[in-house]
Amino acid sequence: MWWFENVRYVSLYRGELHDFLGTGTDDPFGGRTVTACVDPVEFQEKPERDGGVTPRIVRPECLVTVTLPELAAMISRGRTVLPGVCDGRRRAEDWKAQELFFIDVDNDEAMVARGHRPLDVTDAVQRAFECGLPLALSYESFSSTKKQQKYRLAFVAPSIIHDRDEATRFLRGLLAAYPEADPSCKDLSRLFFGTDKEVCVWGRSASMTR
Fold first, then answer.
1. How does residue 7 score in pLDDT terms, banded at 50, 70 and 90?
2. Mean pLDDT of 71-79
3. Second label for 58, Cα 20 to 30 Å away, from 3, 51, 130, 199?
4. β-pair partners for 144
């Protein structure tokens, strides 16, 4: 496995610290917090349809501001994330703000039909650092297997974005860097399920921070 100089990470599994590289701290982002909507229900497997998440996740009590390791712990317990802050309903027109952006890579037939080869999660993480992208989290989904890796990458904007056009441009930039990703990730009101696998939190030393 490759490692960039000064790149560091921690991983969490079922909410507990699992592994770390390059630092003794459990927060390689130095306390950076993000705001998003997180469902309180912990799933042990991928729920059918949305698993009843939609009516819950837009409630005021589901809007949280947490550190990235705290968010990773929630995701590793199977909790669903709505990265965009929505007002009362999970629809594009109800979007209000966002600083956390997810993309999906499923390595499926649809991706191959678009002309792309399968992309390993390790190579996807490496691309993020080579391109200077603000990678925050990576994790394989419930249905990921050794034969077909399915995973998500999460990126953080420098600050919270309140303009929908600006948020859309930021997300489109990520999708341009990852043409292998599911194009439906361009929806700012999209849900992203948690996982039963480890979640990695990525960071860099101050010397590499823009």
1. low
2. 97
3. 199
4. none
